[in-house]
Amino acid sequence: MSPSKLQRVCYGKDFIFGWCLLFIIIASAYPLECLCQERTLTFPTGWKHATAKVYDIPKLSDNLTGFFDFDWTGEAISVAAGEVRITDDAYVGIDVNATEGYEEFFAGLPATGIQRIELSNATLSDSLFKSLERIETLRELVLINCQVTNADANLLNGLPQLQRLHCRQREDSLALHQTIALWAAKCPQLQYYSVPNFNITMTARA
Predict the structure, then answer these.
(1) Of 152, 145, 138, 140, which Cα lies nearest the Cα of 180?
(2) What is the pTM of this model?
(3) Fewer beta carbons under 10 A from the terminal one: N or C of the chain?
(4) Torsions phi, psi for 67 (to 5 deg)
(5) In whole angstroms, what is the distance from residue 38 CA to residue 153 CA?
(6) Is 189 helix (H, G, I), strand (E, B) or coil?
(7) What is the pLDDT of residue 2?
């Protein structure tokens, strides 16, 4: 091979090697997660008592019952206020721990994109239940030390996608359990319904 041809081959290899090296540098600077599609959830602004979390996507149980196994921990990603960027396939939860101001927060939540809500120390009313019922994608609802006032389950519609409903109280509340039980009966996909000292596993629905 003549020297000129040899030089062209060497230069060609150097050119390819240079581009490969550049690609590796760029790839290392931007992790693969960045290549995932993202979406934006818009939360009410000016209220800082809610946390956005991501959870493992529920998977069908191994016992062939048609029930799902749910992740209980999750990972906090941001205060749920204003615009929050998440991956397109994220299973999103909102934790709210407050004794006031949450009614307006729930009234302003988007109708889709939220799969789990954990609500602590709140008073449940008709208006709050109706705000929850606006969230079409809600699959889990966890109520911790909540009370019920001015809530009539006969005026509520239930949640079409709700699969798990869990209540945890410091003290038993008959009014809470009665209202929740009547409301839960209107949730056609419900699989797990648990209250203190009283757990029901519903029949799985297709």
Answers:
(1) 152
(2) 0.75
(3) C
(4) -85, 165
(5) 37
(6) coil
(7) 53
